[in-house]
Specification:
The protein is α/β, with parallel strands linked by helices. It contains eight helices and 13 strands.
């Protein structure tokens, strides 16, 4: 009996070990550099889609832009990293200096790094939100908020998610242009961008895409609707799970399951922002642990919200993210 138990345990351990090995043939796994090694090329203000905007008197098809940073090398097999800026869904920019620094960090090591803009409350003037958010999202918001400003934030949350998904579909559609390998996609974000990152990686392909008919939002036809994507890893800086919580409240569906992307989190333990306290990170950690999905939470001890300059054991946020992505995606490092 003891021998049978021993063999069963050994078989289980062997199976677990095999799951940690790369499933992609070694010659198809991207190679990245341990240090900054390449000059960084930049294509700016590329329109990845359009999205509806209201200026108070009329409806506008508003171009949504992204910047692509890529290495000046001959690789035809580059991993992908798309980053989403913060700003409380009120504003923010893809050209935030800290994001540009991160873009150069990863592109100089072999990644194609995209930084995206998306619609915020500044694009939602007036009170007409048809085509901005689906009717059930609008109805839920009206029933649960007390100010027009809060309502606009809710609608901007939906629009931002629609745009982020469109941006990632654009990346897949243009993989050959930048020699990207869509089997190695990372999505990351800070603050509202981390909220959007979590919802992008966890939600189903059709979520934040199919709830609005093209008759209400004709710009959906610009969003590469025929493309799909698989996110391998998510990088989260001081965000929350709030958008998926709203989605669950509106549609009665939880999207978390054991096939979700692996997750790296860095979050200040002294984050005083009401919607992104450190407990949001520990809540996500608990959800992931309950599903048996690999995740790492790095507490930024004593740091508040937006701790871009934080270091842990001498490593920057980019260093820590690099280590996670290389290890968990089994990237080859030179």
């Amino acid at each position: 009996m003891d021998k049978i138990i021993y063999i069963s345990i050994f078989t289980l351990l062997l199976s677990t070990a095999c799951q940690d090995e790369p499933t992609t043939p070694n010659d198809e796994i991207p190679i990245v550099k341990a240090e900054s090694s390449y000059a960084v090329m930049l294509d700016e203000d590329i329109t990845y889609a359009e999205g509806l905007s209201h200026d108070g008197t009329s409806t506008i098809a508003m171009p949504q832009k992204l910047d692509v940073y890529y290495p000046d090398n001959n690789s035809t097999n580059r991993p992908v990293y798309m980053f989403i800026h913060g700003g409380g869904f009120q504003g923010g920019t893809k050209t935030k200096p800290e994001i540009i620094d991160m873009a150069h960090y990863f592109a100089s090591r072999g990644w194609v790094f995209a930084s995206i803009d998306y619609r915020t409350t500044s694009d939602l003037e007036g009170t007409n939100f048809t085509g901005i958010a689906p009717q059930e999202w609008i109805d839920f918001t009206i029933q649960n908020v007390t100010t027009l400003g809060d309502a606009k934030t809710s609608f901007a949350m939906y629009a931002a998610q629609r745009d982020a998904k469109a941006a990632l579909r654009w990346m897949v559609a243009n993989a050959s242009t930048y020699n990207m390998n869509p089997d190695f996609i990372t999505v990351g974000g800070a603050s509202a961008g981390a909220v959007t990152t979590i919802a992008l990686g966890i939600s189903n392909q059709e979520d934040f895409r199919d709830e609005i008919p093209i008759s209400d939002d004709p710009t959906l036809s610009t969003t590469n609707l025929n493309e799909t994507f698989v996110v391998s890893s998510m990088v989260y800086f001081w965000g929350s799970n709030v958008k998926l919580e709203v989605f669950e409240s509106v549609y009665g569906e939880s999207r978390y399951d054991s096939n979700d992307p692996e997750l790296f989190m860095a979050h200040g333990t002294n984050d005083q922002n009401a919607t992104t306290t450190f407990s949001e990170a520990t809540e996500l950690e608990s959800i992931y642990d309950s599903l048996g999905i690999y995740n790492e939470l790095v507490p930024l001890v004593g740091e508040g919200h937006g701790a871009w300059g934080a270091t842990v054991d001498g490593k920057s946020l980019s260093d820590l993210s690099f280590d996670f992505l290389v290890e968990r995606q089994n990237l080859r490092v030179e």
